[in-house]
Amino acid sequence: MKKVQVSTADKSWDFVIREEDGQMLITQNGSDHPVDLIRLGQSRYSLIIDGHSHEIGVDGSFDGYRIFNGSRSEKFLVEDFELARIKKEAGIEDTVKQLNVIAPMPGLIIQINCSEGDEVAQNQPILVMEAMKMENDIKSPKTGTIKSIAVALGDSVDKGQVLIEFA
Amino acid sequence: MKKVQVSTADKSWDFVIREEDGQMLITQNGSDHPVDLIRLGQSRYSLIIDGHSHEIGVDGSFDGYRIFNGSRSEKFLVEDFELARIKKEAGIEDTVKQLNVIAPMPGLIIQINCSEGDEVAQNQPILVMEAMKMENDIKSPKTGTIKSIAVALGDSVDKGQVLIEFA
Amino acid sequence: MMNEINKILIANRGEIAVRVARGCHNCGITAVAVYSDPDRTAFHVRVSDEAYPLDGITSAETYLVQEKIIEIAKSCKADAIHPGYGFLAENAGFARLCAKNNIIFIGPSPEVIKLLGDKLEARVAAIKAGLPLAPASTQDIEDIPKAKIEAGNIGYPVLIKAAAGGGGKGMRIVNDEDSFEAALKMAASEAKSAFGDGRVYIEKYIARPRHIEIQIMADTHGNVVHLGERECSIQRRHQKVIEESPSAVVTQDLRKRMGDAAISIARATGYVGAGTVEFLVDEDLNFYFLEVNTRLQVEHPVTEMVTGFDLVKEQIRVARGHKLSFTQEDVVQRGHAIECRIYAEDAAAGFVPCTGKLAAYQEPAGPGVRIDSGFLAGDTIPVYYDPLIAKLVTTGRTRETAIKRMIRALNEYIVHGVDTTIPFNLLVMENESFVSGILSTHFIEDEFPELADSLSHSEEELEISAMAAAIIDYKQHSKITATANKRAETGSPWKLSGRVSGLRKVW
Amino acid sequence: MMNEINKILIANRGEIAVRVARGCHNCGITAVAVYSDPDRTAFHVRVSDEAYPLDGITSAETYLVQEKIIEIAKSCKADAIHPGYGFLAENAGFARLCAKNNIIFIGPSPEVIKLLGDKLEARVAAIKAGLPLAPASTQDIEDIPKAKIEAGNIGYPVLIKAAAGGGGKGMRIVNDEDSFEAALKMAASEAKSAFGDGRVYIEKYIARPRHIEIQIMADTHGNVVHLGERECSIQRRHQKVIEESPSAVVTQDLRKRMGDAAISIARATGYVGAGTVEFLVDEDLNFYFLEVNTRLQVEHPVTEMVTGFDLVKEQIRVARGHKLSFTQEDVVQRGHAIECRIYAEDAAAGFVPCTGKLAAYQEPAGPGVRIDSGFLAGDTIPVYYDPLIAKLVTTGRTRETAIKRMIRALNEYIVHGVDTTIPFNLLVMENESFVSGILSTHFIEDEFPELADSLSHSEEELEISAMAAAIIDYKQHSKITATANKRAETGSPWKLSGRVSGLRKVW
C-alpha cells in the first residue's frame, strides 16, 4: 500500500494504491477504483480504470511525469504523501510548483518582457524567441514571481535550456 | 573488407562488402554499389542501395536471417566466403539447405503423408495439421529426402516445433 | 416506438469491433468492448470507451458465451448489443436472450434470423417471394430413389448441400447418377457431424458462377431499400477474399431486377436492419437466389464507399426505431470500390494461417484509401481466432483507378514478422482476367493453378534481400568484433566465440 | 506534343512529398525523393522508389538549392520535377532552369508564375479579365499626398499591402487618415526588409471576410475547368488551419459566378496545370479577387474528396501534354469534406512550434477518414522546417456527418511526445458558430479570446492523468524497491537512493 500526493502547478490529488488478490486498486476520497495497467511499449500503457479504457503515454525526459492522455499532455509530480506533508509544513516547495521556463526549441532570444522579481500571471508573454523562421511568444506557465532570468538578449539557446526560474 | 556467401534453400550469391572514406560499398560480379543502411527501430532498417530506397525488416527468431522486403520475406544464411568454400569441399551442408519443417502454429497432427526416406518435391503436401478450426496442409519447403519424422498422428504440437527433418 | 441508445456493447473482436466502435463514436454513442485474455491489449479494447474481460482464451470460452456478454451489458448499462459478424451475429437464441433482458439486439428479429438461417426454409421463403432459384429439390431428402428422380429432373451435374450448412461442409458436386447415392450419404454424414443436422437437399450445379450479392437496409416503418450489388467471386475455400462494387457485369437493368428480388424477400420475411441477399450469376447473367446473411458483412465498406452511406450508423438508426435516412431514389453509386482482405496467411502454402508478432506494421493511406484494421504495430496475431488483419479498400472514379490505387496501397503496406496475403492480392490486381473483369468463383484455380510458383519472388527482389542480409550481417559482425576485441583485452573467453560467430549467426 | 514521363523527382519534403509520391505510384511512375541530412529516414524518403541526399541541414542549404536539385534530376534521369507547395513551387527562375535542362516543371510556365506572383501585376490581370476586386490603388504608391487621396476615395478602413507580399508581412490596417502616413512608411520598410521589395498598395479593408477559393485545372489544349470552392476562413497568423468544401454559404449560382471568374483569369493569363484563385467574400456574399496560387495547395484533398478527381494525377496528365480527363459538366460535388491540419504546435501558448520525437504516433482510420501524413511513429519532428505533421480529412454526405467524423477521428488520433493542434481542432469542431457555418478570417479571435483557457483540460481528464501518474509511479517504485532490496543484500549503496527516490523521481 502506498499513499501519494500527485500535483500539477496548481492542483493536487491524494491517492492510496494497494493490491488485493492480484487486483490493483486506487482509492480517492474513500472510493475504490479497480485498475488494470498493461505496458504496450517503451513508454505506452493501456490503462483500464473502473472499466474505462485509456491509452496513456509517459515522457521520460521530464523531471517528474509528463502524461499523455488522448491528445493532451500534463506534467505531474508524484510524492509520498507523508513526505509531501512534512515538506509543506517545513515550507519547502516542490519541483513542479517551482516550474522553470524551458526553451521549447532551439532559437534566438529576441525580446525579454520581464525582470527578476516580477509577479507574472499564467500565460503572460514573458519572452520572444526566434525559431523556425517565426517569432514565438514564450508565456509564463504559472502565476508567480520570477527569481532569475538565465538568458540575455541575443542569446542562442538549445532546446530544453532553462530560460527563467521561478521563486 | 569481408567476402560472404548468402544463400537460400536453392540460390546463392557472393558479395564483397567494404568501407571507403565512410562510404559502404557492396560488390557483386565486379560492380560496386554504394550502400546506406540506417536502423529505424529494433529490427527495421532503411536501406538505400544505388539510390534505390528499401524498407527492410529482420526477424531475429530465425536461425540465420529472415529478411522482410516490401510484403515478402525470405530466409538467408550468411557465411564467410572461405568457410563456405571449405565446408562445401568437405561436403558439409549448411543450415538453410537442411531446412526442417517447423509447425507454423500450435495444433494437432491429423495426417502424415510421407515416410522416412521419401523423396519429396517442393510444395508437396506432407502433413495435415488441425489449427484455428481448420485443416492445414503442411507442404515441403524444398525438394529433398526426408531424414526423420519427429511427430506421430494425434500429437499436439507447439508453434516452432520441428515436425520433419531433411537429410 | 423510439428506443434510447446511448451505450452499445460490441460482442466481437478484431477489425469489425473497431469498425462498430467507430460507428458508435460517429453517432456520439459510448462504445463498450469485451475481450478474451489474449485480447487484453487488442485494438478494439483500446479504441473503445469501456472494456470488460470475458475471462478465458478460446472463442468458446469467451466471445461465444451468451450469458457472460449479457451480464456485462446489464452491469455496464448498455442499451444495445452490436454482434458484428461471426460469433453470435446470426444466433437467434442470443437475439432472444437480449430481448428477454431488455437489451436491443442490433439485427433482425430472432424469428427472421432463424427462418433465413435455415437454407431450406429460406429457399421456401424465396420461392414464395418470387425469387429465381437454381432448380433444386423442394425439401430435404429422406428417400433415396425419390431423390435420384429429383436429381435426374434437375439434370446433372447437381450439388448436394447441407440444409444447416455453410463454409462448404456437407457439400458435394455429383456429375452422374452412378455416384449419386454414395455422395448423398457422405454429404449427410458430414453435415450431421459438422452441424448436428444431417438434412441435405439437391441443387442444380452452376458452372463458373459469379457470386454477386445485394445489400439491403430495412427499418421498422416498412421501408426497404437496396444499396446496389457487391461482386465477391474471388474466393478461396468458399471464403471471399476480394470484393468490389459495382460489379463489372451488372447493368442498371440487372441491378434493378436483383435489387427488387432482394427487397421482395426482405418484405416477405419482415426483415429489419442491414442484410445481404446472395445470388449466383451464370454466364448468361441469369441470377439465382443463394441465401440471406442476416448481419453486417465483412465486405460492407465497398458499398459504403460507392453509395456514401454509413451502414453501421443506419443500423443504429433503425435499432432506435427511426426511419431510414434515405429512400431508394437517394441511392446512387458513384465511382468504384475494391476491398482486399489482408490475412495473416501464407498463400503460397495454401493459405495456412501465420501467427506471430507484427514487428513492423504500417498501413497505406492517402488519396482513395480506406483501411479497416483490427491490429496495431507491436500486436501479436493470436492463434485462437480468425487471422484477418485488416480490410484495405480503394476507390476511384473508375474500376481501373481503383485497381491502380490498390496496387499502390498494397506496395506501400509494410508488415514485418508474419506472412500475409498482400503478395496474393497484388498478383490478382495485376492479373489480366481480373483487370478485364472476367471473374468466377473458380478464379483462383483457373488463373493460378500453381499459386506457389506465381507468388515466388522476382530475381531482383531476392537479390536486394540477399544484399540486405549480407550488409546487416556485416554491421552486426563489426559490432561483435569490436566487442570481442575489447573483451579480449580484458582477458574474457569471448575471443573464441567471436571467431566462431563467422560460421553461423544466431541473431 | 506528348511528353514521356516515367520518373518524377519530388523537390519537397513532408506530407506533400509523400502525397506526390503516392500520385506517381497511382500512375505507375517512379518517384524520386531528395532529402536533407535530418530527413534521411523521413517518410517521403521511405515511400519513394529512389532517394538522393541534398547534403545539408537548413532549407537554404538543401530544398531551396536549385542547382543541386537539377543536378540530381539529370543524373537519375528524371523526366519531370514536381515542386509540391512552398520551397521552389512558385519560383519562376526554377521553372526556367528546369526548362533549360530539358526537365518538365510540373506547374504553369515561368512567365505565368512571375506574373501572378506579383500581387500588383496579378491585380491588373484580374481587372483586365473582368474579375471583381476590392477597391484599391491601381498601382504601387510613390507619392504620399496622392496615396492619401486614393485612400480617401476607397474609404477607411483601408489595408496597406506589400506588392511582393505574403504571410501578413508588410500589411497594415489603417482606420483613419491621421494614422495613414506612419502606417504606410512602416509597411513599406517591413516589406523592403522581408521581400527586398518595398512596393506597397492600398486596398479596401473588408470586415469579417470569408476566405473562399476556387480550384482550377487547365491543360495545354485550351481547356480550363474549375472544381468548385474551398472555404479556408479559419486562420491563425494569416495561415489556414481548417478548410472545407463546399462552403456553407456558397450557392450554386455564386459557385458558378466565382468559378467563371477563376476561369477568366486563367484563360487571360494562359494558365496551365492546377491553380487556385483566392477570393475574399463579404457578409453580403460579394466576392473580391485576392490572388492566384500557381501550385497545388495544402488543402487540395477536400476538393478531391467531394469531386472524386485526383489532382496530382491530373497535373501529371497535363504535364504529359494530354487533355484533362474531364470537362466542366463532369465536375459534380458530392457530400462534404473537412480538413484539419495537425501541427506540432502548442495552440494554448499561441501556436508555438513543438519539436521532438513521436514516441507514440497512431493515425485514425476507417469510414470517411483520409489522412495525408509526413511522419511515422518514432520519427522526430525536425526544428528546421514547417511543423505540419499531417492533414486529417473527413467526409460525409452532409457537413454535419463530416464534422462528427472529424471529432471521432481527432479523438482517436494518438500522438505522444509532442504537443499538437489536435485539441484546438476539437475545440473548433465543437464550437457552435463553426457548426452553424458562421465563419470569418477573425474566427479564432472572435470565438476564443482566451484560447489557452478554452484549451485547458477538463477536471475529469486531468484526474485520470493524475491517477495514471500515481499508478505508473507505484509500478516503477515497486520495481526499484525490488532491485534495491536485491542490491542491499549484496551490499551495494543502492539502498539509500532507493529511499530517496520516494522524494523526487527522475524517470
Describe this structure in words.
The complex is a heterotetramer, with two copies of chain A (167 residues) and two copies of chain C (507 residues). Chain A contains two helices and 16 strands. Helices cover 8% and strands 57% of the residues of chain A. Chain A has two domains: 2-89, Glycoprotein, Type 4 Pilin; 100-166, RNA polymerase II/Efflux pump adaptor protein, barrel-sandwich hybrid domain (OB fold (Dihydrolipoamide Acetyltransferase, E2P), Beta Barrel), CATH 2.40.50.100. Chain A has helices at residues 81-90, 95-98, and strands spanning 2-7, 12-20, 23-28, 31-41, 44-49, 52-59, 65-69, 72-80, 101-102, 107-112, 119-120, 125-131, 134-139, 144-149, 156-157, 162-166. Chain A has an eight-stranded antiparallel beta barrel. In chain A, strands 9-16-14-11 form a four-stranded antiparallel sheet, with no helix packed on it. Chain C folds into three domains: 1-106 and 459-495, Rossmann fold (3-Layer(aba) Sandwich); 135-204, ATP-grasp fold, A domain (Dna Ligase, domain 1); 210-458, ATP-grasp fold, B domain (D-amino Acid Aminotransferase, Chain A, domain 1). Chain C has 18 helices and 22 strands. Chain C has helices at residues 14-26, 43-47, 66-75, 92-100, 110-117, 119-128, 144-154, 180-195, 252-269, 300-307, 311-319, 399-412, 422-429, 432-435, 443-447, 451-454, 459-489, 494-500, and strands at 7-10, 30-35, 50-53, 80-82, 104-105, 158-162, 172-174, 200-204, 210-218, 224-236, 239-245, 273-281, 287-293, 336-343, 345-346, 352-353, 356-357, 360-362, 369-373, 380-381, 388-396, 414-416. In chain C, strands 13-12-9-10-11-14-21-19 form an eight-stranded antiparallel sheet. In chain C, strand 12 and strand 13 form a beta hairpin. Chain C is globular and about 80 Å long. The termini of chain C are far apart. Mean pLDDT of chain C is 91; it is low at 487-507. The chains are: A mainly beta (167), C alpha+beta (507). The interface between C and D is large, with 39 and 39 residues.
